[in-house]
Task: structure prediction
Amino acid sequence: MNNREQTREREIEQEAAHQEHQQQTGSPPMAASAMDGVAATALRSVVTRVHQAAERSGRTADRIRVVAVSKTKPVSLIRQVYDAGHRCFGENYVQEIVEKTPQLPEDIEWHFIGNLQSNKVKPLLTGVPNLAMVETVDDQKIANNLNRVVENIGRKPLRVLVQVNTSGEESKFGVHPSGCLELVKHVSMACPNLEFCGLMTIGMPDYTSTPENFKTLASCRSEVCEALGIAEDQCELSMGMSGDFELAVELGSTNVRIGSTIFGAREYPKKN
Result:
């Protein structure tokens, strides 16, 4: 089993453990805690840091979206961040986002940011009517499945990003940079129910290497925009997480995905 297969196996196990915990206890894996009192404050700090990073790079912060990644976090904690005025949230697992959606306001803009398996496409799209974007289209098969289900259920075109593996790590999902343009063309030309909005990547945990990953994604954008005849500011770059989002903004990110800096460290259900 290679690293990519092992990563997929771990994600499946984590989602299964989450579902089992819900069935056994009827509650989220992490109960509301003292974090409830600081998540809104942490969000404001993140937004301030995004504004500062934008200013350093000569950009306006209103073009940069903060996706609050609430993976493994209880609805009560998400609600606190919502009540602070935030509307954009991200989840990694289909089961979890489908469970949370009906418990939260309909004006939330959900982003799905995890690896998406073909058999989970219909549950995701039918279970989350306010799904704003899927950020992890990494091959033609998943693009075709999304396109078909969107048409079958009669929802408006779905906004998507193409995920690019800029670090070359086998454990990471995403199309190789050399195949990025071909996949973008497929989404744009062969999937009328999908709206191509840009590119996404996950930088290496070694943040000294991350700038090269982000620069690679920017290069992919330049290639895509030239080939499709669109302006670069019409093609989003989703890059940057809790450890590197300021650097990502300085290098052109329009969409940062922030989890633990807002919500605290994640806790997964423990296996028996």
Summary: The two ends are 24 Å apart (CA to CA).
